[in-house]
Amino acid sequence: MTLRPFPLAAAAICLAALAGCSVAPEESAPQDSTKFTVENTDQFAALDPAAEAAVKCTGLQERMLGDGRLEVVANVKNRGSEPAKVRVQCQFLDDQGEPTEPAAQWQALSIAGDSTAVVRFTSSNASAKRYAIRARGAP
């Protein structure tokens, strides 16, 4: 009986290809992004049911400016298809959670339906290390 080399080689290639399919893909560690962090929304709080129903925070970006002041950018998304009006405020805090400056003025924010607005806050001094962003329904 004569063995033909072509069918044997084809069978070996098929087995090698199928063996590669049975290997589970490696899980990769999430990559840090200094530009944008979607999951970092713990510092955002809706203070009343109107704000809770109207908007949500989809991302926060923070960075230290060259002079040591903290800058925060919040992405606030309208939850509905109708325009939403809310007021937002940022309170800058030190390492112990104490305010570093008087509370900022509330900023009126109008967001079109199914849209996202970007709000920027900058601390007035270099002692701010943390922050809390609050939203409430607009009158």
Explain the overall architecture:
It is built from 2 helices and 7 strands; from the N terminus they run αβαββββββ. The chain has 139 residues and is of the alpha+beta class. It has a domain at 44-137: Sandwich (Immunoglobulin-like). The strands form 2 sheets. The protein has a 4-stranded mixed β-sheet. The protein has a 3-stranded antiparallel β-sheet with strand order 2-3-6. It is elongated and about 85 Å long. Mean pLDDT is 82; it is low at 28-37.
Q: State the CATH architecture of the domain at 44-137.
A: Sandwich
* Gap from first CA to last CA: 93 Å
Strand arrangement within the widest β-sheet reads 1-7-4-5
Structural class: alpha+beta
**From N to C, what is the helix and strand string?**
HEHEEEEEE
| Unreliable parts | 28-37
- Overall pLDDT metric: 82
Care to count the β-strands? 7
Rg calc: 26 Å
Strand content: 35-45%
Describe the structure using short key phrases.
alpha+beta; 139 residues; 7 strands; Immunoglobulin-like; elongated; 3-stranded antiparallel beta sheet
Précis, in short:
The protein is an alpha+beta fold. It is built from two helices and seven strands; from the N terminus they run αβαββββββ.
Fold topology:
Elements: H1 5-21, E1 44-46, H2 49-54, E2 55-64, E3 70-78, E4 84-93, E5 107-111, E6 116-122, E7 130-137
Parallel strand pairs: 1-7
Antiparallel strand pairs: 2-3, 3-6, 4-5, 4-7
